[in-house]
Amino acid sequence: MSGATPAWPPQSTPRLFVDAPLGAGAAVRLDGAQAHYLVAVMRTKPGDPVKLFDGASGEWLAVAESVGRRDLTLAVREQLRAVETVPDLWLCAAPLKKGRIDWLAEKACELGVARLVPVVTRRTVVDRLNLDRLRAHMVEAAEQCGRTAVPALADLVKLPALLRDWPAGRALFFADETGGVPAAAAMRAHAGPAAILIGPEGGFDNDERDAIRALPDAIGIGLGPRILRADTAAAAAVSLWMATAGDWR
Amino acid sequence: MSGATPAWPPQSTPRLFVDAPLGAGAAVRLDGAQAHYLVAVMRTKPGDPVKLFDGASGEWLAVAESVGRRDLTLAVREQLRAVETVPDLWLCAAPLKKGRIDWLAEKACELGVARLVPVVTRRTVVDRLNLDRLRAHMVEAAEQCGRTAVPALADLVKLPALLRDWPAGRALFFADETGGVPAAAAMRAHAGPAAILIGPEGGFDNDERDAIRALPDAIGIGLGPRILRADTAAAAAVSLWMATAGDWR
User: Fold this and answer.
1) To which H or E segment does residue A212 belong?
2) What does each C-alpha distance from B162 to B50, B135, B176, B216, B230 come to in angstroms?
3) At A2, is the pLDDT very low, low, confident or very high (cuts 50, 70, 90)?
């Protein structure tokens, strides 16, 4: 630890996503869980700093003004950071059991995915999905990992529709348990917009795999000799893309 | 689905780790949770196949003989696969909150880590660790992901002792939040035995970082511009190593 004067706002400053446009001079009123967190957990007092981001205009420094028991008002002072630019990577993944899909949404946000697309496949056991809960997990992850934007969350789509409407020129790296080229080399060779497609725990069936392969932008990738759970494969593939074609280089 | 005769044993054959040496002709008696799983959950009947592995002699085909309500005996027939060789990668990680360290152990096994080393650092909040529970999570992951060996699990060690006894020649890639070279390039440049060191949620303190850097085999790596949780950083770094220096190439 150096003896220098600590920076203001301190590192411990709470950081929250607000679903309203931010700007210098704006007043933001918080209630519910966010107010409880600031007032009851963080013991925020008038004059205390809070970092806010809205997913569109970057990160802002705000200061608590009136602090009630169940709500508080913050005055937005100045922009701390511009909105981030994350690399153009989508993660298309079949819904998983509650705990695992929540974890996948958290990791997708931390690792820097721009868009999460839940995809229904034939072997997808989970056919209903709480998008609000998924988004809440991504918001919490964005608050924690310093992202100034929350990944976009697409509606649940069936695999045939996803493939039918696939945007030409966006590489589609799909985890191919039947083989496929080593992931890192394949990703390094394809710069530009990309997506990773991960099947359900049971994998794609043969017809689905054929349909994916028929897409000109599809590239089957291998993730090593061991069987990976779907959530593990997703985190591994996104990490490899970020390191070979994304902003970890 | 092809119309060919399904292979025997079928893909759905249960797969279990047994903590006793296996060999052709051996009889294995199971009780407790494993017997409950086979008898009550999988409805195993005499003559049904079960895959067994002991972490040392590969994977074996066994057949249920006597099946009781709370225990059953299996006859080991033949070896299906030799014991695997996983690349020589250790994951040295500070203990995390219960759910996250369990998840990390599962992922370490799936991704192919040879040895998991829990490390206590100054900012490690969790100083007690249930090694049996960690091992149980790795065993379950090994059963699921087809590994024929469970990663070795080291005793909890303090960071200074880990560094003091570090085996010369084993590259130590540590996640350096203060910077560091891009992980994939650094790992590609260092073949041979390696380890990944991940700090606790609070990161390493400055003295610890200096002590790690003082190790000749230490290489500080960066994992991109976003802040990653410790469990995310561990999964990402192991994936990158497997793809650039391990057996995913």
Assistant:
1) helix A206-213
2) 40, 20, 17, 14, 19
3) very low
Q: How far is CA A167 from the centre of its chain?
A: 21
- pTM more than 0.95: no
| A43, two tokens | 């013991």
Q: Is A249 on the interface with B (CB under 8 A)?
A: yes
Which residue, chain included where needed, has tokens 């607000």?
A: A18
Parallel/antiparallel/unpaired status of strands A71-81 and A59-67: antiparallel
Q: Which H or E run contains B142?
A: helix B131-145
Task: List, in order of start, the domains of chain B with CATH numbers.
Answer: 15-81 (2.40.240.20), 89-244 (3.40.1280.10)
DSSP B160-197: HHHHHTPPTT-EEEEE-TT--EEHHHHHHT--SSEEEE
Strand pairing category for B27-31 and B15-17:
unpaired
> For chain B, first and last CA: distance in Å?
30
Cβ contacts of residue A239 below 8 Å, gap of 6+?
A111, B235, B236, B239, B240
User: Taking CB atoms and an 8 Å cutoff, what residues of chain A touch B235?
Assistant: 107, 232, 235-236, 239
ipTM score: 0.91
The tens digit of pLDDT for each residue in A56-114 reads: 999 999 999 999 999 999 999 999 999 988 899 999 999 988 788 999 999 999 999 99
The answer to whether residue B56 neighbours chain A at the CB level (below 8 Å) is no
Tokens 């410790």 correspond to what residue?
B230
How near does any CA of chain A get to the CA of B64, in Å?
26
With beta carbons less than 8 A apart as the criterion, state whether A237 and A221 touch.
yes
**A28, A76 Cβ separation under 8 angstroms:** yes
Chain-chain contact of B232 with A235 (C-beta, under 8 angstroms): yes
Q: Which of B21, B20, B22, B30 is nearest to B79 (CA)?
A: B22
Rg of chain B in Å (alpha carbons): 21
Residues of chain B with pLDDT under 50: 1-3
Give, rounded to a whole angstrom, the gap between the first and last alpha carbons of chain A: 30
Tell whether A47 is within 8 A of chain B (Cβ): no
